[in-house]
Amino acid sequence: MLIRFRSPHAAEFLMFGEVALGLIRSMGASGDIPGAIMASDIPVALVGIQKLLMAAQADAVSNAADDETEPPVSLARRALPLIKMLEAAVAGDSYVMWEL
Question: What pTM was computed for the model?
Fold first, then answer.
């Protein structure tokens, strides 16, 4: 499943469902699709995402392997388009919505 994120102040993008749902829930949203968040609620949502990313980073460090395989794409890197979209929505006093 792919989830599409949209906002009037940023380019839309798609994200894999499992990752997107985790980020949506970390923002304090229910995880329902479709859904949206208004600019006034985004600062709290960004704090929730940052907490999730810090926990994921601590987990990744504690589970780091010593082999030379290519590391997986980090949650922080996957979350970056959403974080940028949320910041643009705050600056433009707008919303971010997600749908299938």
Answer: 0.88
